Amino acid sequence: MLASPRGYCAGVDRAVDTVSKALDHFGAPVYVRKEIVHNSHVVRELADRGAVFVDSELDVPEGAVVVLSAHGVAPEVYRNSGRRRLHVLDATCPLVTKVHAEARRYASQGYTIVLIGHDGHEEVVGTMGEAPEAIQLIGSVEEIDTLDIPDPDRVAYITQTTLSVDETLVVIDALRERFPKIVGPKKDDICYATQNRQNAVKELAAEVDLVLVIGSRNSSNSNRLVDVTREMGVPAHLIDDERGIDPAWLKGVDRVGITSGASAPESLVMRVVEHFREMGVENVESHELVDEDVHFQLPVQLRRAVTAPES
């Protein structure tokens, strides 16, 4: 049984399309800071076309084209890129950009900001770079006690966009209990796609004996789909593709649920489905939850380059 929605969200689709169209327009090489999205298959396919993935904008030759990943970057990255005269194509997900704007706004108003997220995740690194003096990072309720808040009446919270919805709400409730005057965004920062995929896998898990989540190990939202399923008491495993399926998982299993993280292409889902068909499975159903119709335009820098008249 296939979960729906699954796979690419609008931000990932935009980011991958940005690199692809940049290669079409500028030709290889096009440099990409970090992984454009957290999926090894996507990165490998783009690398085969001429994308060069680097750890830092400082590794990009001066004057070259560089794409910034969907996870967002700290302001210092833009400054470094400007000094190196890089042609920047900013593929940051607009929902991450929204969180950055919230961080700057709260910091300018004198709030201490509590960022709920995973230490070291690229999105968290970029968000903290917006106001490093004002932001304190926590990942659980237990870490609230470690916060050093100068003024308990001037506290705000923001969150990483790819967290577990349920776990994050627990942390926010605990923050409100300790800091009754805490403020936060009008809407939860966890993105629509993360919420939809977690809701869909919950409904799927209620009808199957095992859930396979297609996604890479460093994909936060894919790992959360595994966590959400296991919290319901249903076995779940994260796989890169059909080669990651352990036959031992299938013993005694009548119904298998399949979903994919927001950075996993649909082609991987079809490969897993075909794997089961080759094993003799005939009935493949789709469990529809909501229909996503969100679309983000390509970065303005790329749109201008593509439409600019040739000189």
Give me a quick take on this structure.
The protein is α/β, with parallel strands linked by helices and about 300 residues long. The protein has helices at about 10-25, 40-50, 75-85, 95-110, 120-130, 165-180, 190-205, 220-230, 265-280, 300-305; strands at about 1-5, 30-35, 50-55, 65-70, 85-90, 110-115, 135-140, 155-160, 210-215, 235-240, 255-260, 285-290.
Give start-end ranges of low-pLDDT stretches: none
Main β sheet profile: 4 strands, parallel
Number of strands: 12
Under the CATH scheme, which class of the largest domain?
A: Alpha Beta
CATH fold descriptor of the largest domain: Rossmann fold
Arithmetic mean pLDDT: 96
Number of helices: 10
Identify the overall geometry. Answer: flat
Count of spatially separate domains: 3
What share of residues is helical?
Answer: 25-40%
CATH architecture of the largest domain, please? 3-Layer(aba) Sandwich
Q: Major sheet: order of its strands? A: 3-2-4-5
User: Which series of helices and strands comes N to C?
Assistant: EHEHEEHEHEHEEHHEHEEHEH
Provide the β-strand percentage band.
Answer: 15-25%
